[in-house]
Specification:
It is found in: Cytoplasm. Belongs to the NusA family. Participates in both transcription termination and antitermination. This is Transcription termination/antitermination protein NusA. Pfam families: HHH_5, KH_NusA_1st, KH_NusA_2nd, NusA_N, S1. This protein is an alpha+beta fold. The chain has four domains: 124 residues, N Utilization Substance Protein A, Chain:P, domain 4 (2-Layer Sandwich); 64 residues, Nucleic acid-binding proteins (OB fold (Dihydrolipoamide Acetyltransferase, E2P), Beta Barrel); 127 residues, K homology (KH) domain (GMP Synthetase, Chain A, domain 3, 2-Layer Sandwich), CATH 3.30.300.20; 146 residues, no CATH class. It contains 18 helices and 16 strands. The protein has a five-stranded mixed barrel. Strands 1, 2, 3 and 4 form a four-stranded mixed beta sheet that branches. A hairpin with a 2-residue loop joins strand 8 and strand 9. Helix 9 packs antiparallel against helix 11 and helix 13 packs parallel to helix 17. The two termini are 79 Å apart.
Length: 512
């Protein structure tokens, strides 16, 4: 069968639908074979040949030459075989060319259904194969329609879904608008490949920088991490493999032209570009910019930090509704607790006071314990002897006595706090009864219980705890602890027992 349009149709479908030519040819052969079986019988041995050069399709039915025919669908006599091939013998298999014009309407309809079904399957597979390698990339499309807040994007060969939760706030699109989005995922489903898009993913910001900044595309500047609050503010950390290339300046561009094009794409989203550092303290200080950092206390075991800032920079470090510190947490991967210098001073004073209640601890030892990351009596009780021995100036006997005294104070504080709670309950009951009495007699009853401690914190000195003899020395030690020069060096990445270490920004700058 010579069909002049077959070759042209196959080539056109291959271009328009993105389907491989071999798949289309195999589909055509299967459809014609199905039509031939409708005409010649299900047991017939049929082969379909397609000529790539001419586009000719031929159908052959193979029969075996036998002396006596038992199954006419697959056998024929020697006399009949000699008509097709004069040299045939018994046992030969003869391919008899079939006239496809005799298939009829039903067989042609069957072939049509097979072609439609196979074409749909091939088209679904082609869409998946074409887009799976684009996962994690930026793609351009045209808004085709909007369905319940979800945007259907026409990508040419397929449609993609930009759900409402992956859209930036205050973004409005209408049909026909061009849109740029990040390919979040490509899923293979029974109804076809589903392409999911996003404009809120942090990687969308990173890919935008890769498309706008040549140094990023050439891997001279590396984007280490990114954090976003879509449509409001974002932070991105960059580093450079070339010492002569400033990573922040490369991303900003001349007069900010590079970063401004990205800001326009993100509808005015503010972008902070910070320099990544292998030293995590320096990295965190950069991530919290423009706030100035006075001190950093690092707890590497729990991946958390206490950030101490001057009082006037507290609101800047935290940001509006905690935005700045929240983005810094996501950018660095550390839990950050920001506090002012006054708050940190009160915390230190509480620590000194609690440590000075131990008879064996002097002011110098209390200062060393604080600097080595010990903050509560419970930490001293739970610490190993080796951890306490690492604090210079303590012997093994002193460590044993200190832990024993700390345990006694901690247990007494727990029991005392429980007793305070019971006394408060009793006082509330007495107050209620006195109020009833005063109401009946008309006489005023003075308040009861004002002299009781105001806290159940085991670290805070309560009314029943005598103060130490030298409060002035504690204040002096507290002032010295806030001095920059007293901070430990950064050569040792962590304390021996993994307890928090204190890092000053000045020391961080020296290391970097």
């Amino acid at each position: 069968m010579l069909i002049t349009d077959v070759k042209r149709v196959i080539e056109q479908l291959s271009r328009d639908k993105g389907i491989n030519r071999e798949v289309l040819v195999a589909t055509l052969k299967e459809a014609i074979e199905s039509a031939a079986r409708k005409k010649l019988g299900a047991r017939a041995d049929i082969e379909v040949h397609y000529d790539e050069k001419t586009g000719e399709v031929e159908v052959f039915q193979f029969k075996e030459v036998v002396d006596e025919v038992h199954d006419p669908d697959v056998e024929l006599t020697l006399e009949d075989g000699l008509e097709y091939d004069p040299e045939c013998e018994e046992g030969d298999s003869l391919g008899i060319k079939v006239d496809t014009s005799l298939f009829g309407r039903i067989a042609a309809q069957s072939a049509k259904q097979v072609i439609i079904q196979k074409m749909k399957e091939a088209e679904r597979n082609a869409v998946y194969d074409n887009f799976i390698h684009k996962k994690g990339e930026i793609i351009n499309g045209i808004v085709q329609r909007i369905d319940r807040g979800n945007i259907i994007v026409n990508l040419g060969q397929a449609e993609a879904l930009l759900s409402s939760r992956e859209q930036m706030p205050r973004e409005n699109y209408k049909r026909g608008d061009r849109i740029r989005a990040y390919v979040l995922d490509v899923m293979e489903e029974s109804r076809g490949a589903q392409v999911l898009l996003s404009r809120t993913h942090p990687e969308f910001l990173a890919k935008l920088f890769a498309s706008e900044v040549p140094e990023v595309a050439e891997s001279i500047v590396t984007i280490r991490s990114a954090a976003r609050e879509p449509g409001i503010r974002s932070k991105i950390a960059v580093s450079s493999s070339d010492s002569d290339v400033d990573p922040v300046g490369a991303c900003v561009g001349m007069k900010g032209n590079r970063v401004q094009s990205i800001v326009q794409e993100l509808r005015g989203e503010k972008i902070d570009i910070v320099q990544w550092s292998p030293d995590v303290a320096k990295f965190v200080c950069n991530a919290l910019s423009p706030a100035e950092i006075a001190k950093v206390v690092i707890d590497e075991e729990n991946r958390s930090m206490e950030i101490i800032v001057p009082d006037e920079f507290l609101s800047i470090a935290i940001g509006k509704n905690g935005q700045n510190v929240r983005l810094a947490c996501r950018l660095t991967g550390w839990h950050l607790d920001v506090m002012s210098m006054d708050e940190y001073s009160r915390k230190l004073k509480k620590m000194y006071s609690s440590f000075m209640r131990i008879p064996e601890i002097t002011i110098d030892v209390a200062e060393k314990l604080c600097r080595n990351g010990f903050t509560t009596l419970k930490e001293i009780v739970d610490a190993s002897d080796d951890a306490l021995l690492s604090v210079s100036g303590l012997s093994e006997d002193e460590v044993v006595l200190i832990k024993k005294s700390a345990k006694q104070l901690f247990n007494s504080s727990d029991s005392k706090s429980g007793a305070v709670n019971h006394r408060r309950l009793d006082i509330k009951e007495n107050e209620s009864s006195l109020e009833d009495t005063s109401g009946s007699s008309g006489e005023e009853v003075p308040p009861v219980g004002d002299e009781l401690p105001k806290t159940d914190d085991p670290l805070e000195v309560d009314a029943t705890t005598p103060s130490f003899d030298e409060p002035r020395k504690v204040d002096e030690a507290l002032e010295e602890s806030m001095e920059v020069s007293a901070a430990p060096e950064l050569d040792d990445p962590s304390n021996a027992d993994g307890t928090p270490r204190v890092v000053e920004p000045s020391k961080v700058d020296e290391v970097s």
